[in-house]
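Table S2 (continued). Query chain:
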Amino acid sequence: EIAGVAATNALELGVDISGMDAVVIVGMPGTLAALWQQAGRAGRDGREALVVIIAQDDPRDSYLFDHPELIFSEPVESVVLYPDNPAILIPHLAAAAQESALTRKDERWFGHELEHLANGLATAGLLRRRTTGWFWIRTERAVDAINLRSSDGKPLDIVEYSTGRVVGTVDLAAGDRTVHQGAVYLHQGEQWYVSEYQPEKRQALVQPASTAGFFTQALSVVEINIISTSKTRLFGKGVISFGELEVSSQVVGYLRRDEETTEVWDELPLELPVRTLRTSGVWIEIPQELLQSIGLSGTAIGASAHAAEHTAIGLLPLF
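Corresponding output:
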Protein backbone atom coordinates (compact mmCIF):
# COMPACT_ATOMS: atom_id res chain seq x y z
CA GLU A 1 0.00 0.00 0.00
CA ILE A 2 1.15 3.53 -0.77
CA ALA A 3 0.23 6.30 1.67
CA GLY A 4 1.23 9.15 -0.59
CA VAL A 5 3.03 10.21 -3.73
CA ALA A 6 5.38 13.20 -4.05
CA ALA A 7 5.65 14.21 -7.70
CA THR A 8 6.41 16.98 -10.13
CA ASN A 9 3.38 18.72 -11.59
CA ALA A 10 3.49 16.22 -14.48
CA LEU A 11 2.78 13.09 -12.34
CA GLU A 12 3.96 10.70 -15.03
CA LEU A 13 1.43 8.76 -17.07
CA GLY A 14 1.08 5.11 -16.17
CA VAL A 15 0.42 5.74 -12.47
CA ASP A 16 -3.02 4.45 -11.40
CA ILE A 17 -4.43 7.36 -9.38
CA SER A 18 -8.07 6.25 -9.30
CA GLY A 19 -7.94 5.71 -5.56
CA MET A 20 -6.36 9.05 -4.63
CA ASP A 21 -8.29 10.85 -1.87
CA ALA A 22 -6.48 14.20 -1.63
CA VAL A 23 -4.15 16.46 -3.57
CA VAL A 24 -1.80 19.07 -2.09
CA ILE A 25 -0.65 21.64 -4.67
CA VAL A 26 2.37 23.73 -3.65
CA GLY A 27 2.05 27.12 -5.35
CA MET A 28 -0.47 28.13 -7.97
CA PRO A 29 0.21 26.49 -11.35
CA GLY A 30 0.64 28.84 -14.29
CA THR A 31 -2.97 28.48 -15.50
CA LEU A 32 -6.42 27.63 -14.18
CA ALA A 33 -6.45 24.73 -16.62
CA ALA A 34 -3.36 23.28 -14.92
CA LEU A 35 -4.87 23.91 -11.48
CA TRP A 36 -8.06 21.98 -12.19
CA GLN A 37 -6.18 19.24 -14.05
CA GLN A 38 -4.00 18.66 -10.97
CA ALA A 39 -6.97 18.95 -8.61
CA GLY A 40 -8.83 16.36 -10.68
CA ARG A 41 -6.34 13.66 -9.76
CA ALA A 42 -8.27 13.06 -6.53
CA GLY A 43 -11.76 11.58 -6.26
CA ARG A 44 -11.76 9.82 -9.61
CA ASP A 45 -13.63 6.75 -8.39
CA GLY A 46 -16.68 8.78 -7.36
CA ARG A 47 -15.72 9.45 -3.75
CA GLU A 48 -15.45 12.93 -2.29
CA ALA A 49 -11.97 14.40 -2.38
CA LEU A 50 -9.93 17.14 -0.75
CA VAL A 51 -7.71 19.57 -2.64
CA VAL A 52 -5.38 21.89 -0.70
CA ILE A 53 -3.49 24.76 -2.37
CA ILE A 54 -0.52 26.21 -0.49
CA ALA A 55 0.58 29.70 -1.54
CA GLN A 56 4.27 30.19 -2.24
CA ASP A 57 6.22 33.36 -1.50
CA ASP A 58 5.24 34.79 -4.86
CA PRO A 59 3.42 38.04 -5.77
CA ARG A 60 1.02 36.26 -8.08
CA ASP A 61 0.06 33.75 -5.39
CA SER A 62 -0.45 36.55 -2.89
CA TYR A 63 -2.74 38.41 -5.28
CA LEU A 64 -4.82 35.35 -6.19
CA PHE A 65 -5.23 34.32 -2.55
CA ASP A 66 -6.47 37.85 -1.79
CA HIS A 67 -8.89 37.56 -4.74
CA PRO A 68 -10.12 33.94 -4.71
CA GLU A 69 -12.91 34.82 -7.13
CA LEU A 70 -10.21 34.91 -9.83
CA ILE A 71 -9.63 31.21 -9.10
CA PHE A 72 -13.16 29.93 -8.56
CA SER A 73 -15.28 32.20 -10.78
CA GLU A 74 -13.13 32.74 -13.88
CA PRO A 75 -13.39 30.48 -16.95
CA VAL A 76 -10.53 28.18 -17.85
CA GLU A 77 -8.17 29.76 -20.38
CA SER A 78 -8.30 29.14 -24.10
CA VAL A 79 -5.53 26.89 -25.40
CA VAL A 80 -2.67 28.71 -27.13
CA LEU A 81 -0.85 26.32 -29.45
CA TYR A 82 1.78 26.69 -32.18
CA PRO A 83 1.80 23.26 -33.87
CA ASP A 84 4.13 24.41 -36.68
CA ASN A 85 7.03 25.05 -34.29
CA PRO A 86 9.84 23.17 -36.11
CA ALA A 87 11.60 22.22 -32.85
CA ILE A 88 8.47 20.31 -31.87
CA LEU A 89 7.30 19.19 -35.31
CA ILE A 90 10.56 17.71 -36.65
CA PRO A 91 10.91 14.78 -34.21
CA HIS A 92 7.20 14.01 -34.55
CA LEU A 93 7.58 13.87 -38.36
CA ALA A 94 10.36 11.32 -37.92
CA ALA A 95 8.18 9.21 -35.61
CA ALA A 96 5.25 9.42 -38.04
CA ALA A 97 7.47 8.34 -40.94
CA GLN A 98 8.48 5.19 -39.08
CA GLU A 99 4.83 4.14 -38.90
CA SER A 100 3.92 5.16 -42.46
CA ALA A 101 5.96 6.92 -45.14
CA LEU A 102 5.31 10.66 -45.36
CA THR A 103 3.83 12.06 -48.58
CA ARG A 104 2.86 15.55 -49.72
CA LYS A 105 -0.76 14.66 -48.94
CA ASP A 106 0.23 14.68 -45.27
CA GLU A 107 0.48 18.47 -45.41
CA ARG A 108 -3.15 18.48 -44.30
CA TRP A 109 -1.95 17.06 -40.98
CA PHE A 110 1.50 18.62 -40.60
CA GLY A 111 1.30 21.93 -42.48
CA HIS A 112 2.93 23.47 -45.53
CA GLU A 113 6.48 23.14 -44.13
CA LEU A 114 6.28 19.34 -44.39
CA GLU A 115 8.44 19.00 -47.52
CA HIS A 116 11.13 21.38 -46.25
CA LEU A 117 11.35 19.70 -42.83
CA ALA A 118 11.23 16.16 -44.26
CA ASN A 119 14.08 17.03 -46.63
CA GLY A 120 16.05 18.25 -43.63
CA LEU A 121 15.48 14.92 -41.89
CA ALA A 122 16.67 13.16 -45.04
CA THR A 123 19.85 15.26 -45.07
CA ALA A 124 20.40 14.33 -41.40
CA GLY A 125 20.17 10.63 -42.30
CA LEU A 126 16.95 9.88 -40.46
CA LEU A 127 14.71 9.61 -43.54
CA ARG A 128 15.28 8.68 -47.18
CA ARG A 129 13.46 10.51 -49.96
CA ARG A 130 11.99 8.45 -52.76
CA THR A 131 9.52 9.33 -55.50
CA THR A 132 6.62 8.11 -53.37
CA GLY A 133 7.61 9.96 -50.19
CA TRP A 134 9.98 10.03 -47.21
CA PHE A 135 10.80 6.73 -45.46
CA TRP A 136 12.30 5.87 -42.07
CA ILE A 137 15.56 4.01 -42.74
CA ARG A 138 17.10 3.44 -39.31
CA THR A 139 17.18 -0.01 -37.71
CA GLU A 140 16.09 1.30 -34.32
CA ARG A 141 12.68 2.71 -33.49
CA ALA A 142 12.20 6.45 -33.90
CA VAL A 143 11.56 6.83 -30.18
CA ASP A 144 15.07 5.43 -29.52
CA ALA A 145 16.79 7.63 -32.11
CA ILE A 146 15.06 10.92 -31.26
CA ASN A 147 13.44 12.53 -28.25
CA LEU A 148 9.78 13.47 -28.67
CA ARG A 149 9.77 15.38 -25.37
CA SER A 150 12.70 17.72 -26.06
CA SER A 151 14.25 19.63 -28.94
CA ASP A 152 17.73 18.49 -27.86
CA GLY A 153 17.52 15.05 -29.40
CA LYS A 154 18.34 11.90 -27.44
CA PRO A 155 18.54 12.50 -23.68
CA LEU A 156 21.66 12.03 -21.58
CA ASP A 157 21.92 8.82 -19.51
CA ILE A 158 22.88 8.96 -15.83
CA VAL A 159 24.89 5.75 -15.26
CA GLU A 160 26.02 4.19 -11.98
CA TYR A 161 29.80 3.86 -12.33
CA SER A 162 30.23 0.52 -10.54
CA THR A 163 27.39 -1.43 -12.18
CA GLY A 164 26.60 0.31 -15.49
CA ARG A 165 22.96 0.63 -14.41
CA VAL A 166 21.08 3.58 -15.90
CA VAL A 167 19.81 5.53 -12.90
CA GLY A 168 17.85 8.10 -14.93
CA THR A 169 17.96 10.45 -17.89
CA VAL A 170 18.12 14.21 -18.34
CA ASP A 171 17.83 16.54 -21.34
CA LEU A 172 21.20 17.59 -22.72
CA ALA A 173 20.31 21.26 -22.17
CA ALA A 174 19.78 20.57 -18.47
CA GLY A 175 22.78 18.27 -18.16
CA ASP A 176 25.35 21.07 -17.86
CA ARG A 177 23.44 22.47 -14.87
CA THR A 178 22.43 19.27 -13.07
CA VAL A 179 24.98 16.50 -13.75
CA HIS A 180 28.21 18.39 -14.38
CA GLN A 181 31.48 17.09 -12.91
CA GLY A 182 31.25 17.30 -9.12
CA ALA A 183 27.48 17.79 -8.99
CA VAL A 184 25.26 16.13 -6.40
CA TYR A 185 22.22 14.79 -8.26
CA LEU A 186 19.01 13.84 -6.46
CA HIS A 187 16.96 11.04 -8.07
CA GLN A 188 14.02 9.26 -6.43
CA GLY A 189 15.14 10.27 -2.96
CA GLU A 190 18.76 9.11 -3.45
CA GLN A 191 21.80 11.37 -3.76
CA TRP A 192 24.39 10.66 -6.43
CA TYR A 193 27.82 12.25 -6.89
CA VAL A 194 28.80 12.88 -10.52
CA SER A 195 32.34 11.60 -10.98
CA GLU A 196 32.49 12.04 -14.79
CA TYR A 197 30.39 14.18 -17.15
CA GLN A 198 30.61 13.14 -20.81
CA PRO A 199 28.07 15.15 -22.84
CA GLU A 200 29.66 14.06 -26.13
CA LYS A 201 28.77 10.45 -25.19
CA ARG A 202 25.46 11.62 -23.71
CA GLN A 203 26.19 10.16 -20.32
CA ALA A 204 27.18 11.10 -16.78
CA LEU A 205 28.86 8.56 -14.49
CA VAL A 206 27.69 8.70 -10.87
CA GLN A 207 28.28 6.98 -7.55
CA PRO A 208 26.21 6.98 -4.33
CA ALA A 209 26.61 10.12 -2.21
CA SER A 210 24.34 9.48 0.78
CA THR A 211 26.70 11.32 3.17
CA ALA A 212 27.86 14.19 0.96
CA GLY A 213 26.69 16.86 3.41
CA PHE A 214 26.27 19.41 0.64
CA PHE A 215 24.26 20.13 -2.47
CA THR A 216 25.44 21.91 -5.61
CA GLN A 217 24.15 24.97 -7.47
CA ALA A 218 25.33 25.70 -11.01
CA LEU A 219 26.52 29.18 -12.01
CA SER A 220 25.93 30.31 -15.59
CA VAL A 221 26.24 33.36 -17.82
CA VAL A 222 23.75 34.22 -20.56
CA GLU A 223 24.09 36.51 -23.57
CA ILE A 224 21.16 37.48 -25.80
CA ASN A 225 21.55 38.92 -29.29
CA ILE A 226 18.75 40.30 -31.47
CA ILE A 227 18.84 38.61 -34.90
CA SER A 228 15.80 40.25 -36.50
CA THR A 229 12.76 42.33 -35.56
CA SER A 230 9.34 41.47 -36.98
CA LYS A 231 6.98 43.69 -34.93
CA THR A 232 7.32 46.92 -32.95
CA ARG A 233 5.02 49.39 -31.24
CA LEU A 234 5.32 52.30 -28.84
CA PHE A 235 5.32 51.33 -25.17
CA GLY A 236 5.09 54.42 -23.00
CA LYS A 237 8.22 56.39 -23.80
CA GLY A 238 9.96 53.26 -25.05
CA VAL A 239 9.46 50.68 -27.78
CA ILE A 240 8.38 47.06 -27.36
CA SER A 241 9.52 44.62 -30.05
CA PHE A 242 9.05 41.01 -31.10
CA GLY A 243 11.47 39.04 -33.22
CA GLU A 244 14.13 36.37 -33.48
CA LEU A 245 16.78 36.08 -30.78
CA GLU A 246 19.94 34.08 -30.26
CA VAL A 247 20.43 33.03 -26.64
CA SER A 248 23.91 31.83 -25.67
CA SER A 249 24.41 30.28 -22.23
CA GLN A 250 27.35 28.66 -20.51
CA VAL A 251 27.74 26.99 -17.12
CA VAL A 252 30.99 28.43 -15.73
CA GLY A 253 31.11 26.96 -12.22
CA TYR A 254 29.12 25.77 -9.25
CA LEU A 255 28.63 26.40 -5.56
CA ARG A 256 28.76 23.74 -2.88
CA ARG A 257 26.20 24.56 -0.17
CA ASP A 258 25.67 22.97 3.22
CA GLU A 259 22.60 20.73 2.94
CA GLU A 260 21.26 21.85 6.34
CA THR A 261 22.14 25.56 6.56
CA THR A 262 22.52 26.28 2.78
CA GLU A 263 25.74 28.17 3.67
CA VAL A 264 28.20 28.32 0.76
CA TRP A 265 31.20 26.08 1.30
CA ASP A 266 33.13 27.14 -1.80
CA GLU A 267 32.90 27.99 -5.50
CA LEU A 268 34.50 25.73 -8.10
CA PRO A 269 35.09 26.50 -11.81
CA LEU A 270 33.88 24.46 -14.79
CA GLU A 271 34.89 24.49 -18.45
CA LEU A 272 31.77 23.63 -20.42
CA PRO A 273 30.75 24.61 -23.96
CA VAL A 274 28.54 27.54 -24.89
CA ARG A 275 25.01 26.37 -25.77
CA THR A 276 23.20 28.45 -28.40
CA LEU A 277 19.46 28.54 -29.01
CA ARG A 278 17.53 30.38 -31.74
CA THR A 279 14.12 31.42 -30.47
CA SER A 280 11.47 34.13 -30.58
CA GLY A 281 11.16 36.75 -27.88
CA VAL A 282 9.89 40.11 -26.71
CA TRP A 283 12.09 42.97 -25.54
CA ILE A 284 11.65 46.57 -24.44
CA GLU A 285 13.97 49.40 -25.48
CA ILE A 286 14.16 52.44 -23.21
CA PRO A 287 15.67 55.71 -24.50
CA GLN A 288 18.98 56.66 -22.91
CA GLU A 289 17.78 60.23 -22.34
CA LEU A 290 14.85 58.92 -20.27
CA LEU A 291 17.21 57.00 -18.01
CA GLN A 292 19.41 60.07 -17.64
CA SER A 293 16.44 62.31 -16.83
CA ILE A 294 15.52 60.21 -13.79
CA GLY A 295 19.13 59.89 -12.64
CA LEU A 296 19.65 56.14 -12.86
CA SER A 297 23.27 54.96 -12.80
CA GLY A 298 24.54 51.88 -14.60
CA THR A 299 24.15 49.69 -11.49
CA ALA A 300 20.66 51.00 -10.76
CA ILE A 301 19.61 50.43 -14.39
CA GLY A 302 20.64 46.78 -14.11
CA ALA A 303 18.83 46.38 -10.78
CA SER A 304 15.68 48.00 -12.21
CA ALA A 305 15.75 45.74 -15.27
CA HIS A 306 16.12 42.72 -12.98
CA ALA A 307 13.13 43.89 -10.90
CA ALA A 308 11.07 44.40 -14.07
CA GLU A 309 12.00 40.87 -15.17
CA HIS A 310 10.67 39.36 -11.93
CA THR A 311 7.55 41.49 -12.17
CA ALA A 312 6.91 40.13 -15.66
CA ILE A 313 7.55 36.55 -14.52
CA GLY A 314 5.02 37.03 -11.72
CA LEU A 315 2.33 38.86 -13.68
CA LEU A 316 2.40 37.49 -17.24
CA PRO A 317 0.78 34.17 -16.28
CA LEU A 318 -2.29 36.16 -15.18
CA PHE A 319 -2.75 37.28 -18.79
